[in-house]
Design a protein that fits this description.
This protein is α/β, with parallel strands linked by helices and 573 residues long. The chain contains 20 helices and 21 strands. Bound molecules: thiamine diphosphate (TPP).
């Protein structure tokens, strides 16, 4: 249907168009470039005109991280808009994260007025000269799939639809649109808009049938096939497909630095999680390897699959084409949507596999699964009575506090061996590009998409510092998005310390136990920060106090208050 849109400003038409295209939230961090948008929102509010809901987000990094979490949970984009070049720069780390995670972000920014006088919106402050860039989008161009500047209201629909089309087409990723002040302030002619849009992109990419057959034969004939998976579970439907495949072939599954829940923890074919720096006998014994949506399936400097084992890579872009260097062997590429390809592969494996062999192998893997799980359970239980709280015990206590409707966003410290996730879409970890601070904002985005669920953000003390914590707490309070934040506070950047020990095991730092530039003491009273927004904060020092504190924190969240537990703990007590 063609609709005619007549508005006083381009800004109004822009917002109405976003709403028409399914965008319900506008996460904004504004400046003088927002004048026409602010006025438009006020008009919509006064006249009860449906438009995206504007949410003020006090830091750009938080706004983009929120949009990231929101998309993962809602499957729909939120719009983000920031202030010209300076706001873009603040947002850039979160754009890197979204880009590497393949998450679409509808990112926009004002553009300082082009004209120095003469038009509505022309320059009237010193910033309007100093904030002009020769090429504002250059800052993000390596990580945005597309960028453009809206030059005239007449092209509004074409530009917005082009942005959405490119952003949502696979492999997905952020796009960046700049909006000059004069264009937003201009009175457009009556615009005709096609609604709904005729620029649909969704649809599965099906695999090459020959490659599916080839992969199925390899997996079915192997005596110790192994699946390594990182991010297939971004699409919850892929989890069922992976279970079907693993069962069809009696194939063990290892989650390699998982970004999502890819395979239920309690499934007898789950063989656990790769551990940085450690080798895994399951990989050493593998005679065929299937890598699914995994950019780093193993660490070549630590361990590789046996030389004769064929390697299959399955994913929407199994080559990770945007990574400058990546040299994993790939004997059979399957470029396809995992949720579409996995059932096809499962069916083909079932056809080729010997049932008795599959049953025998499944029993063998199940025994190993039980052995590994028992060891993890013992580690967690053993930490329950230590003087110092261990990370494993905190993770286990969080697992025990979760209900059917809890979602966890983990920026590192929660070790999946000790916190069992079984339901797709209930676990999100930071993207492998690791722009620290992502977790808190992403958790707020998840809460925005799923307001009735309990959301827990598990953060290191380092990650909390990076997250723009006061902005996040403000968002919790101002926009009624209370979540429970659990800080695993080891009072240092352990990742930095570990890298020194890894590279210089006999070096001076290891010998003296002094690791300059990694210590975060005196540790702040993080539990006090949340109180600045009338939240609930508690410092937790002993293992026996973790579970009761979680209960109190979750009760506060249920009452609508942001809550934070500052848990003093160590990775290996
Ligand atoms: C923006 C950014 N700056 C620096 C780093 C480097 N870095 C990676 S992990 C880490 C320490 C994180 O500390 P914390 O969250 O407390 O976890 P821990 O290492 O102590 O387990 C740092 C500084 C990064 N990944 N991102």
């Amino acid at each position: 249907m063609i609709r005619t849109v007549k508005t006083e400003t381009t800004a109004e038409a822009y917002l109405l168009l976003l709403k028409d295209r399914g965008i319900d939230y506008f996460l904004g961090n504004g400046g003088t470039d927002f004048a026409s948008l602010v006025d438009a929102f006020a008009k919509f509010e006064a006249e009860k005109i449906p438009a995206p809901r504007p949410l003020v987000i006090p830091h750009e990094f938080v706004a983009v991280s929120m949009a990231h979490g929101y998309y993962l949970e809602a499957g729909r984009p939120a719009a983000v808009m920031v202030h010209v070049n300076v706001g873009t720069s603040n947002a850039s780390t979160a754009i890197i994260s979204a880009s590497r995670a393949g998450v679409p972000i509808f990112m926009s920014a004002g553009r300082t007025p082009v004209t120095e006088e003469g038009l509505p919106g022309a320059r009237d402050l010193h910033i309007h000269w100093a904030q002009e860039s020769f090429d504002q989008a250059a800052m993000l161009r390596e990580y945005a799939k597309w960028d453009y500047e809206l030059r005239t209201p007449v092209q509004l629909e074409s530009v917005v639809d082009r942005a959405l089309e490119v952003m949502l087409a696979e492999p997905q990723g952020p796009v960046y649109l700049t909006l000059p002040r004069e264009v937003l302030a201009a009175t457009p002619p009556a615009l005709s808009v096609t609604s709904p849009s005729r620029r649909q992109v969704s649809g599965a990419r099906l695999p090459d049938p020959d490659r599916i057959e080839e992969a199925a034969r390899i997996l079915a004939r192997a005596s110790s096939p192994l699946i390594l998976v990182s991010a297939a579970g971004r699409d919850p439907r892929a989890v069922a497909g992976l279970v079907e495949l693993a069962e069809a072939g009696g194939i063990g599954v290892v989650e390699a630095d998982p970004v999502y829940l890819n395979f239920p923890h309690d499934h007898p074919l789950h063989l656990g999680y790769n551990q940085s720096g450690a080798s895994d006998p399951a990989l050493a014994e593998a005679d065929a390897v299937l890598v699914i949506e995994a950019d780093v399936p193993w660490y070549p400097s630590v361990q590789k699959p046996p030389a004769g084992a064929p390697v299959i890579h399955l994913g929407i872009d199994p080559f990770f084409s945007r990574y400058p260097m990546r040299s994993y062997p790939c004997d059979v590429p399957i470029a396809a949507t995992p949720s579409a390809a996995l059932p096809l592969l499962a069916e083909a494996v079932r056809r080729h596999a010997d049932r008795a062999a599959v049953a025998a192998r499944s029993a063998r893997i199940a025994a190993e699964h039980r052995r590994r799980r028992a060891a993890w359970d013992a580690t967690a239980a053993e930490q329950a009575t230590r003087a110092t709280t261990g990370f494993a015990w905190v993770a286990r206590s969080i697992q025990d506090a979760m209900d059917e409707d809890t979602v966890v966003v983990n920026e590192y410290p929660l070790d999946r061996r000790y916190a069992a996730f079984t339901r797709p879409g209930t676990y999100f970890a930071s993207p492998h590009s690791s722009g620290l601070g992502w977790g808190f904002g992403a958790a707020l985005g998840v809460k925005l998409a799923r307001p009735d669920s309990t959301v827990i953000a598990t953060l290191g003390d380092g990650a909390y510092f990076f997250s723009q914590p006061l902005s996040c707490h403000f968002v919790e309070r101002a926009h009624a998005l209370p979540i429970l934040t659990v800080i695993f506070n080891n009072q240092r950047w352990e990742a930095v310390k570990r890298s020194v020990i890894g590279l210089y095991p006999d070096g001076r730092a290891s010998a003296t136990g002094r690791f300059p530039l990694s210590d975060l003491t005196p540790s702040p009273h993080f539990e006090e920060v949340v109180k600045a927004v009338d939240g609930y904060g508690e410092r937790v020092e002993r293992p026996g106090d973790v579970a009761p504190a979680l209960k109190r924190g979750l009760a506060a969240v249920r009452e609508g208050r942001p809550a934070l537990l500052n848990v003093l703990c160590q990775r290996a007590p």
